[in-house]
Amino acid sequence: xxxxxxxxxxxxxxxxxxxxxxxxxxxxxxxxxxxxxxxxxxxxxxxxxxxxxxxxxxxxxxxxxxxxxxxxxxxxxxxxxxxxxxxxxxxxxxxxxxxxxxxxxxxxxxxxxxxxxxxxxxxxxxxxxxxxxxxxxxxxxxxxxxxxxxxxxxxxxxxxxxxxxxxxxxxxxxxxxxxxxxxxxxxxxxxxxxxxxxxxxxxxxxxxxxxxxxxxxxxxxxxxxxxxxxxxxxxxxxxxxxxxxxxxxxxxxxxxxxxxxxxxxxxxxxxxxxxxxxxxxxxxxxxxxxxxxxxxxxxxxxxxxxxxxxxxxxxxxxxxxxxxxxxxxxxxxxxxxxxxxxxxxxxxxxxxxxxxxxxxxxxxxxxxxxxxxxxxxxxxxxxxxxxxxxxxxxxxxxxxxxxxxxxxxxxxxxxxxxxxxxxxxxxxx
Length: 429
What we know:
single chain; alpha/beta; Rossmann fold; GMP Synthetase, Chain A, domain 3; 11-stranded mixed β-sheet; 4-stranded mixed β-sheet; 13 helices; 25% strand; globular
């Protein structure tokens, strides 16, 4: 399979110049965009100031389009051109469903095929796919692109598709060399295996691909320790496809900038931030936009990007991105901002904790409460572990949490029923 690697940064820049204009021309065919783009000078799109006059697009704006009007307002090809639909949506808000054409799928599969090349996968490898399978595209795109490259695949899906106990049996029996899934489910698989006396660190799996949720340093360390495997973080979104991935250099996520035009802007002003500084990610697909013409999509991710590539592979011409967190990732409890990624790091670095979730609640007295539900490592007693967990949270966030210990496997079963693990939930009305 030809992965169509660009030869130089100059070639990437020329692709962007041509395809940005094509993306805007496509958008002008959608009624949704006609007023939004009325004042844009199409001959000056290479001027950053002119490009930034295109308004940012958010998921909330698309949710305002009635579902029965979405295809007529936002899409630019008839239903006869559609070959499949993709689901977009995290743990909150009405999910959206995007139609995809055959041309869109060709581009999407190319982007995912490059992901396998990044980690050095080749024929002879076997990939156990635990990403959800179905209308959410990430699982089947990883599997289909692997097959195109001659990599054997085990299409398990998440625990709701193939029970976790059976997935562990398949790993032991079929001996895959690569496991691919969401990090939270990878930890759950390892916890269940451990409870059965099975050490996944001694399994055949040597490489792990994770995506679809932020990977904190603590979560990476725990995955690598429990699986005894090298972890590769990958990043994508339903509005694009596979956008950026980590190679063996582990210098960050290599961005497919010949397929997607990325900007990093200040969350408040919308002005580009200096190179290497953290800002809000804005994405414009350059090719897989033949039905849904996304322009300057505000993804809700905070990232930093440096233009100089890393590594020595064919992907070294691409910029490198580091994912900071989701913009919505915090609770405010009794006036204290509790950043989700910081709390996740804190909990996963605690060797007493095998799994957790956090909820912001209102007590019977009307006070805000941070309620943390934990599953403890085998052999650990709540009387010993709970005070240490509480002390860690108090020291980090200056707030006293409520701790509830759950039976092991409770959270895994809850997470299995969701596309993305609902680890942080605000239940305050």
